[in-house]
Amino acid sequence: MALRLESIEYVHDGAPVLAGVDLEVADGEAVAVLGPSRPAKAALLAMAGLLVRPASGTVAIDGAPLEAGTPEAEVVRHYAIAWISQAAGLSLDRAVLDNVAAPLLVDGFPADVAVEPSLDALSSVGLRWAAHLPAASLAPGERRRVAVARALVRRPRLVLAHDPTGGLDGPSAVVVVTRLLHDLEARRTSALVVTEDAAVASTCHRVHELRDGRLAAVR
After folding, report:
1. What is the pLDDT of residue 173?
2. In terms of pTM, does the model score above 0.90?
3. Residue 207 contacts by C-beta under 8 Å, 6 or more apart in sequence?
4. Of all helices (H) and strands (E), which one includes residue 60?
5. Which string of b and e fits 18-27 if b means at least 16 CB within 10 Å?
6. 31 touches 191 (CB < 8 A)
């Protein structure tokens, strides 16, 4: 899914957070945004994910401008966009398979129908073997990978990842994101990853830096 942000301005509590941001993510491409400002990165993802309207500027999905809160945007946001946050956010007392299947069950899929796509998503992150284990029994890096599988189970066309490896050591963080991006590339799914970790950012096709509300290409 192609994403384009054009001339995005956003103000929070009277202070500019994003100032004339232009960003493009092509279909099947992974783009990273580095930067120290959590509010600015969170605002950027909120615009891209059609959660919040910018003060000015345009958000377009596959060439069609969309505004957060409209029926058209809500359909795209729910069915075509998936989020991976800093916290894995798993129900630790439940089985790994149940955690991954949760989005499908929310959509009304019968439990038996949700099993196969959930196992496929776990296979894509190398954790099919853990399907029936309690999530609490997994290591932190494995829990992150379960969160990735849960995000992928609906087969989204755009993944938005907000510091998805926070709390992991450098090598583990790179492994988690590399697995994610490898699977997304195979599915022709786009990804926008905001992070403070330059090693994680380097696994993406392109890297930008967000400072003082402005975006600049790094590579």
Report:
1. 67
2. no
3. 31, 32, 33, 34, 201, 217, 218, 219
4. strand 56-61
5. beebebebee
6. yes
Query: Taking the CB of residue 73, how many other CB atoms lie within 10 A of it?
Result: 21
Q: Which domain holds residue 90?
A: 3-217
Instruction: Categorize the per-residue pLDDT at 75 as very low, low, confident or very high, splitting at 50, 70 and 90.
Output: very high
In Å, how far are 39, 110, 154, 202 from 42, measured between CA atoms?
5, 34, 23, 20
Strands of 206-211's sheet, edge to edge? 81-84, 158-162, 190-195, 30-34, 206-211, 214-217
Q: What is the largest CA-CA distance in the chain?
A: 50
Per the structure, the count of domains in the chain is 1
Domain CATH code at residue 79: 3.40.50.300
How does pLDDT run across 11-57, given as a tens digit for each residue?
A: 988 888 999 999 999 988 999 999 887 889 889 999 999 999 999 99
Length in residues, the chain: 219
Helix (H) or strand (E) holding 142: helix 140-152
